[in-house]
Amino acid sequence: MKYSMKNISFLLGFILCLVMNSCSDDFLDKKPDDKMDEQQVFERYNKVDGLVTKVYDRAKAANRPLVFFNHFSTAPVTDECEGSTAEKSLTNVFNAGGWSSMGMPDRSSCGQYWWDLYDNIRKANVILEGVRKYNTPDNVLNPGELEKRIGEVYFFRAYFHYLLIRMYGEVPYINRTIDPQENMDFKKESYHAVVEKICADADSAYSRVPDRWLSTDFGRVEKGACLGLKAMVRWMAATPMWNGGTMPDDTRQFKAEYTYDKKRWEAAKVASKALLDFKVDGAARYTLYTGDADNETFKNDRGKDENGSKVYKRLWNMYYDMNSIMNEWVWFATRDKSEGWQGDCYPPTSQGSSRQMPVQEQVDEYEYIGPDGYGYPVYADRAKADGYDDGNPYASVKRDPRFHRDIMYHGAIFKNSTINTAEGNNRIGGSNATTTGYYLRKFFKEGWNRDQGFIINGPAIWRLPEFIYIYAEAVNETTGPTQEIYDLINQVRARSWMAPMPPSVLGSKELMNQYIQRERRVELFYENNRIWSSRLYLEPSSSTELAKETQWMAQGANYWPYPKCQRAIHGMRPVEDANGKIVINGKKYRMERYKIEDRVFVAPRHYLFPIMDDEIKRTPSLVQNPGW
């Protein structure tokens, strides 16, 4: 951890910078002047309030779903998307294995790595200890505000540790300020021990923050965020990486504690159900967004149907309508990006640079609606008999409506124009064009043009559906399929006009789990989930996925469903064919699968991020993560 001699005065430097509002992020390296000392700061409520506001800013920077790696989301380093060569091919560096304990890819840091997270934790501890030491007075204008600020800081200390274990696994839990002169003899703790401490801090926050915030305070930490944090870490602790799975060449310090324990799924069930059942003034605090009557239409944000009646207004509006944000979003950071992000992802015909493009692995996860009125994967044994044609995959059967909201494909209507990946500026391989045959569509305000501006308020850090999936999975793991979880998952599907799961899932724990995992991939596509879940379930080392990978290597791109091993991605290209079913500009096409690239995922190395070598030099008691 970064504690150098320059940090001897970190406490006063931290306080002074926030008080004067004139320092940059490196204020901890600056010596305090004589304008205000530690005691003077903590004896004033408004100064402490300012410190907490700064911690909010750091929390937002540490976990931005749209640009987690500064210029890219996490999607292009998974089997969701492929990244362009912009910004020095940042995500391609990850996919080629170009990251190590010597350093992370250039310009990828925006506050999400080890050193920044521990710096944020230090700030939280400074506040908590300063308030206790100097008995900070309450806000005289609004009594009770100080206790809420303390609760928020407890939440953030837990939240930063959650971000640490998500990336690094076993870590030290730091619940006090560190004297730079002391021996830096910090040691990792068991994953489950850290989870318990996160939950304890979340409980401390829960007891202090309000049931909900309204008006200008909306978006601050409230009780639901505390419940959500507990549910997230309980779920993570129950997944195979930390509960019975096998990691190759496992050198984790506490691996003996990671044998399977059903009680961890029980704990995840209890924690997620607490969030689902949480009420304020007798009504459920969180509800699925269903919009109003107008949301049944295909109108875009200009009130026009310019998508061929394929993209329901509700499906993109759930990321912009305040009713959705206020009632479905459990934790979020508003104003994540401006219209520039959307412009970067636009196709060339809209003056975009297609920075992040969906891949076939993700497209295949969107189910079709069968003749019997239920949803099935396109790779199911029955799909072909039900009419699915891989040469006409987007129209031969009715696909999940979320597919049309999320992805542009050959033949899709966008801004009243047909996307053509065979010819013209949008063709595969063209300048600033797709390399996968697809363009991103999710989160777009489709009425927007480059001469306009707007703010993108999403995606959320956690939305209600994520906790529905956690609860459903926990119930399925502990008791098997039930009508309750069948109905809950179908509610998420129904609000997107997607058909229900077939009743057969009620008789099969394995089949129910397959639907839960597929739902997670579809509903949470491009929302900073896949990179973590694929690792938590140890998919690249799964015997099932390795068997599929062996067959895929022998048979090529046309062997699918593709393995989830993160070692290759695919696309879909149009091929002129007199018998093709897709007609654009008088030409007939069929679609054809092809491999885009091989990727590097080495187990166990890439399951967890490395601790930097310079951190280990400062703290030799730390043990490097497996494979690094």
Automatic annotation (TrEMBL):
Q: Where is the signal peptide?
A: 1-24
Which Pfam family, giving just one, matches this sequence? Answer: SusD_RagB
For whether the record's keyword set contains Signal, the answer is yes
Report keywords, A-Z: Cell outer membrane, Membrane, Signal
- This protein's major location comes to membrane
Question: RagB/SusD domain: from which residue to which, for each copy?
Answer: 342-628
Cell compartments where the protein resides: Cell outer membrane
- This protein's GO CC annotations: cell outer membrane
Please state which protein family the record places this protein in. Belongs to the SusD family.
- Can you name this protein? Starch-binding associating with outer membrane
